[in-house]
Amino acid sequence: MDIRNGLVEAIGNTPLIKLQRASQATGCTILGKAEFLNPGQSVKDRAALFIIQDAVARGALRPGGVIVEGTAGNTGIGLALVGNALGFRSVIVIPETQSQEKKDMLRLAGATLVEVPAVAYANPNNYVKVSGRLAEALAETEPNGAVWANQFDNVANRLAHIETTGPEIWAQTNGKVDGFVCAVGTGGTLAGTGIALKARNPAIRIGLADPMGAALYSYYTTGELKSEGSSITEGIGQGRITANLEGAPIDCAYQIGDAEAVEIVFDLLEHEGLCLGGSSGINVAGAIRLAKELGPGHTIVTILCDFGTRYQSKLFNPVFLREKGLPVPGWLERSVDAPN
Ligand code: PMP
């Protein structure tokens, strides 16, 4: 028998999918870890589970308690679903700029949603800071505890990837992996997977794929946190060194523009049937850059972070794309115009 005993056991152990066209173009084997196949359709289910388990182990969260978080959406979806499975309620603070599909999913999962204007981290009304204050206030009134998940600086997040994502990739490739590349939201995935892979073979190259508007490409190439431009991608793009990023073993960094990323996302859907969000495009672009640097014959792993339907109103919307000056593939134009 092969039975997962509930949602919690269905998180992780995702397949590694060989990306045919990226591999052909580089002469390397480029593998995508299919995190969109998690129950909440994103990589963040792993962090959500570890954060909740850590809060329970510390005694901060008791049955019926509340988990509070500021999130671009995916962590909130993971927390809400794991919360439902384990008997916790969720309160999610989200910047209003995030996709409608993610907000709808959060409400469907029973989360109490607090939408706030998208303002910089330095602003006291930033969604992360609002969620921290809300958790503090609820802790006073909730009899079973209220916990701030604090995904950016709670290292239970990267522990999920040290204990699951990294070891899975090592086992799935029989240790034949030369590089790992991904983008950073909290840094949990990159730092945690990087730490786990380096512990097994220090020669594995760990690369950051950074969208425009983030400050980490500049940090890891010049030592200075500086950003320029902006990106339509969601869930990634960091302006500071979070606790999860501290000491991350990062060897190289690539800055990826939206045009390059969305072209890859469209290509993967049209030719390989993989329906992914924008951050997966940034990741695959980064993996291709590292593959070109290392030369043919190497194996590079990256993360396919979440499922594309979460962005149908933006990334897969010709009107939105044109507004942003991004290319619209003919098939997408036709699929939107087609009568039902
Ligand atoms: N892609 C998407 C779509 C995400 O939601 C996130 C998490 N916010 C990431 C990538 C980045 O993951 P991490 O927080 O582990 O850096």
UniProtKB/TrEMBL annotation:
It comes from the Bacteria. Residues 9-306 form the Tryptophan synthase beta chain-like PALP domain. Keywords: Pyridoxal phosphate, Transferase. Its cofactor is pyridoxal 5'-phosphate. The keyword Iron does not apply. It is an enzyme of class 2 (transferase). GO terms for molecular function: cysteine synthase activity. InterPro entries: Cys_Synth/Cystath_Beta-Synth, P-phosphate_BS, TrpB-like_PALP, TrpB-like_PALP_sf. Its EC number is 2.5.1.47. This is Cysteine synthase A.
